Amino acid sequence: MLDVLKAQEFQESKIEDEPILGRVLVFPGGRIQPLTYFERLMLTLRLTDAKKLEGAYLKKLAKA
After folding, report:
1. What is the pTM of this model?
2. What is the mean pLDDT of residues 7-19?
3. Quick one: which of 5, 29, 38 has its CA closest to 53?
4. Is the distance from CB of 24 to CB of 40 less than 8 angstroms?
5. pLDDT, tens digit, for every residue of 19-63?
6. What is the C-alpha to C-alpha distance for residues 58 and 45, in angstroms, rounded to an integer?
7. Residue 25, burial from CB neighbour count under 10 angstroms (0-12, 13-18, 19+)
8. Which residues contact 53 (CB under 8 A, 6 or more apart)?
9. Are residues 23 and 43 in contact, defined by beta-carbon separation less than 8 angstroms?
């Protein structure tokens, strides 16, 4: 039963440090979104997180 639950875990977006791009948002599907200076500043000040940034980027994609 526990093996089934582990296989169905929901993956979340996360913030990672890339060697060339710096801090990036990595979506569950593997897509990488470089962050703007303002977004990096907001992360440093802990005013936003990966989940909020993911929502903002998905809204932008829905409008396009």
Report:
1. 0.77
2. 81
3. 38
4. no
5. 999 999 999 989 999 999 999 999 999 999 999 999 999 888 888
6. 23
7. buried
8. 13, 15, 25, 33, 35, 39
9. yes
